[in-house]
Write a structure and sequence with these properties.
The protein has 322 residues and is α/β, with parallel strands linked by helices. It has a domain of 222 residues: NAD(P)-binding Rossmann-like Domain (Rossmann fold), CATH 3.40.50. 42% of the residues lie in helices and 17% in strands. It is built from eleven helices and 13 strands. The strands form four sheets. The chain has a seven-stranded parallel beta sheet with strand order 3-2-1-4-5-6-11, with helices on both faces. Helix 9 crosses helix 11. It is globular, with a radius of gyration of 19 Å. The chain starts with a strand and ends with a helix.
Length: 322
Amino acid sequence: MRVLVTGAAGFVGYHISEALLARGIEVVGVDDLNPYYDVRLKQARLRRLRKGFTFHHLDIADHEAVRRVGEGVEVILHVAAQAGVRYSLDNPFAYAVSNLTGHLSILEVARHSKSVKHLIYASSSSVYGTGSALPYEETERADRPSSLYAATKRADELMSASYTHLFGLKQTGLRFFTVYGPWGRPDMAYFGFAEAIMEGVPLTLYENGMLKRDFTYIDDIVAGVLGVFDHPPGEEAPHRVFNIGNRRAEYVRDLVGLLERHLGIGAKIVSLPKPDADPVETCADVSALHRLCGYTPRTRLEEGIPRFVAWYKDWRVKRTAV
């Protein structure tokens, strides 16, 4: 079997590719290696993907290029995107290209392919906006996005729904909840907090760290993705959307406390009011995904943060030599 993974040099894409390769599946990876964060980290991830992995350096918005490399693949795992809520305030057109045109490009590949049987794509918990009831359920309307990033991810879901309606594409969207772990993204809060603590500079906590997030360890994310991979849609529900989270809301301040403990350094903290785009709390209802494939997140924050810290300390040393 051949699988196309977009964003293969990214945090989630790398881990998914690694898991598929461990199963003996041939992986065709694409990524534009954009400098949104340290490209050395993306290149280091790619170097770990070897037997059975083929990499193509390209932009998913380049439809013809994606179409060529996607020939003969049976499943597309589309996790490439311009990430980040706050970055979308300053660089909105990056989101239009990557998240809208890029998603449409992948849909067109799947539509015209004679081999693709299932398109799995990444959405986001941000689509629920700031006014949804907790825990978030997939039946929520999700029509009040509080950021451009959230709006683009919801638009991707709607585009996918229309392509299933028009062309019968079998698709699954996954709404990821605050993913963390080794080989993570430097723009994510937990990674930035670790950097600030190690460098002895102040870190910013909104509302004194009393916001709550459904922190989901990368291994649990991969387990959910593989569960969907193993249980493709049928004719009765050809397009599905699932939450994929840890089903626990944790205080951001507790996350910082765990980082302090395992880094062995106290944090210098500055508190600011919550930005309008940030929800007070996120928490996933994952019962639908559990019914599909038995998805059960297993990694608590108290276990996941020490694993991240161990990797992070090693990466801090290695990145200076890359």
